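so im writing up the methods section and need the Phosphate-binding protein record in one place, dumping it here so i stop losing it
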Amino acid sequence: MKLKRNTRLAALCALAVSGALTLGACGSDDNSGSGSSTGSATGTSASDTAASQDIKCAGKGELRGSGSSAQKNAVDKWVNDFQAACKDVTVNYQATGSGAGIQTFLQGNTAFAGTDTALTSDEVEKSKKVCKDGQAIDLPMLGGPIAVGYNVKGVDKLVLDADTLAKIFDGRITTWNDDAIKKLNSGADLPDTKIQPISRSDESGTTDNFTKYLSAAAPDAWKYKASKKWPVEGGQSADGSSGVASQVKQTDGAISYFELSYATANDIKAVSLDTGASSPVEATSENATKALAAAKVTGTGKDLSLELDYKTTAEGAYPITLVTYEVVCDKGNKSDSLDALKSFLTYTSSEKGQSELKNLGYAELPSDIADKVRSTVKSLS
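--- predicted struct ---
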């Protein structure tokens, strides 16, 4: 019975979203710095055992990281697999949000940071104080659709386009039976319920990617610059992906943006996008991968930051897709955590590590990009 309980707990830890489940052994995704991905992985499932066979352990002690809440559900699974194989390493990942994670890394307090937006030139310059004889680089590790989740009673399917989304989040479309929404949803019984847009209150790579999409795909309707900080004054907000998802679930008329895994875990319906393709595109892992396939590496040297096409009209390509990066030093990583860092990132970027993502609502890296990541991880020093 003990083995069954432990196996069940390990599976729950990999899939739990803070707010949906409260498990003391899993850590929480509250984006306040109190949540972490740690564990002893006392029980192993068949999939854990298979993953363990693909992991080459190195290093010992605690490996600390923080940042993106978008990747937390994936990190939970990776940590569970990794620690089942590597008993001498404890991975502690705090889901504090992309902005906070980068700042913590630049202060020298973590071995890596998770971020949903690539480093700025100013952040790279600051990193040279932490990365001795080197600098911080972006390593793409996973992709995923940013779902536009909504809670409107009686509306099970909803199609929106970029212009309409921009006007909704800017407060210029205020009821769900607005003519612009009716036009995109012929035959739907749309209520006169007030629209309740909910944004992230913390600095977030998810916000940055969502506003990049609005800026690129609806330039006439969205007049704000892309930013990690929500640019529209007023309105409702919540902290972290789990916070906004929870608020949408309990607010009639609400709409917000968060990673697909949070929509799935909270049973929140997601908008399909009219991109100009022959039919509306759903937010799915497969459709996000189609969008990632067109991404271009724009980083220099060992930096592998990507440029996405938010205006794509390709069939089945879901354009509101983010890439989560792990930020590390190319040179000058701390000697006491370097081996564990390389071992962990070697697994997360491996074919096995990437194959775990689909079931969690994420998108795998295209094979050519994944190969570049693995090669760069090997070269870290």
